[in-house]
């Protein structure tokens, strides 16, 4: 009985210490402090990556997404976006056993005066996927899920890099 009380007290002290020092998991509240109040995103209208990035930026109340580049404090330029699929390994019969999927985004961020806030940055994500000829439809669905997962990861990396920009 006494050990349970001591353990509970230790847990309570540890929790209070962590809360008191300001410890917080990275992105645990899903919001980042952006160094600008408005941003223009140069993605195509139907870009899934652009849509998810807009949704994440709107989730935090501090940044406004502008449709007109001249009204924005920051301009997010997409210099390149590509998805790739390469053979990673073959079985003994020369058939594909694994693919390597990749998702690459190259972007930069400028301010309203065309001054570069974030130099051209390339983010490349890779995932491996096993392939089985007898389960082609399932593997196509798995591939789509992996690309969606990479897209979500890419958006989080972009948000962290945007939040790390030092205003000039």
From TrEMBL:
PROSITE patterns: PROKAR_LIPOPROTEIN. It comes from the Bacteria. The keyword Signal applies. It is found in: Cell outer membrane. GO terms for molecular function: lipopolysaccharide binding. GO terms for cellular component: cell outer membrane; transporter complex. It is a lipid-anchor. GO terms for biological process: Gram-negative-bacterium-type cell outer membrane assembly; lipopolysaccharide transport. Keywords: Cell outer membrane, Lipoprotein, Membrane, Palmitate, Signal. Component of the lipopolysaccharide transport and assembly complex. Interacts with LptD. Together with LptD, is involved in the assembly of lipopolysaccharide (LPS) at the surface of the outer membrane. Required for the proper assembly of LptD. Binds LPS and may serve as the LPS recognition site at the outer membrane. Belongs to the LptE lipoprotein family. This is LPS-assembly lipoprotein LptE. It comes from Massilia yuzhufengensis. The lineage of its organism: Bacteria, Pseudomonadati, Pseudomonadota, Betaproteobacteria, Burkholderiales. The gene is lptE.
